[in-house]
């Protein structure tokens, strides 16, 4: 092994013992394994996760993967970072220690015990929420100890009032975890539980509203029963309140993310999509479309396509001057899925009104579609593009028709 230093691109040298033996990078969270060797936590955890059972340096077997923080080495690394800040080295933050399984089990038992005081249980739930927010690993540790069962029990406990902090804190923790199919059924099959969650969608706190929407989305998406999903989407004011979250006036990324997930899940129930239109979903989707991140933009476009498949939705979108140019612009810009949904929505709109066909052509859809059918997009996207090209054929300018032969699209056939 090299004795001391190795050069770094920055012109500063990192002491060899500050580097992780696995990644060879500066350690941010050094931990000691059973053989006495020190590694960066993320590196040794990845090593173990791939099935390795030996110490990478000594090759001795590791029967216990308990990781002990090397606080002394971490402090030395931090001091070295500070001493070399003139070279652009940033001080590594003091890492938060992962949740201890024994501690998590104890916290959940305390939260579930009605013999404990309300104040004590509330403190425990807040601690669990903090742990869950710290890292994916913490959430995994908490989830393996029947946390969702405990939290659902607290959330829907008959001994708590509907507005108690205990209920709301358990909801906040629960919103960090996906529910199993049986847990979704436990909620969706109980009308009182659904009513309670819907009532929280109008709570004075936006955090509570978003947490309730997150759990409802989880339940709707995870419930296999079409009857239960239909019953939830048919509830009074559920669409109005979800759209209200989506329209939250202040910058709150989580409200937008949860709002569009919940709206999409509810719109999968075809017979109640008109309720989304009546609640103002069309305007909200158009107004917010440019603000979504990639994955959420895909959901928003999928929801637009779903709503365009019903007469009320198609008419509502058709009356908005921005929708056609917006959808045309999106094609090939965000992702393959976004392109597919945008093309599908345009197909529904242009099939419903000749005026929209002319708008689409004027917005440049012809070029977009011709590029799309020659791209590596999904077959479904190409099929929708071909159908739309066929539909718009009579609206093409003569020059465009001649140019389209260069794209081998003269043989477009209906599907």
TrEMBL record:
SMART domains: Ubox. GO terms for molecular function: ubiquitin protein ligase activity. Residues 13-87 form the U-box domain. It is an enzyme of class 2 (transferase). InterPro entries: ARM-like (IPR011989), ARM-type_fold (IPR016024), ARM_PUB (IPR058678), PUB22/23/24-like (IPR045185), RING-Ubox_PUB (IPR045210), Ubox_domain (IPR003613), Znf_RING/FYVE/PHD (IPR013083). It catalyses: S-ubiquitinyl-[E2 ubiquitin-conjugating enzyme]-L-cysteine + [acceptor protein]-L-lysine = [E2 ubiquitin-conjugating enzyme]-L-cysteine + N(6)-ubiquitinyl-[acceptor protein]-L-lysine. Pathway: Protein modification; protein ubiquitination. The keyword Iron-sulfur does not apply. The keyword DNA damage does not apply. Keywords: Transferase, Ubl conjugation pathway. It comes from the Eukaryota. GO terms for biological process: defense response; protein ubiquitination. Its EC number is 2.3.2.27. SUPFAM superfamilies: ARM repeat, RING/U-box. Functions as an E3 ubiquitin ligase. This is U-box domain-containing protein. The lineage of its organism: Eukaryota, Viridiplantae, Streptophyta, Embryophyta, Tracheophyta.
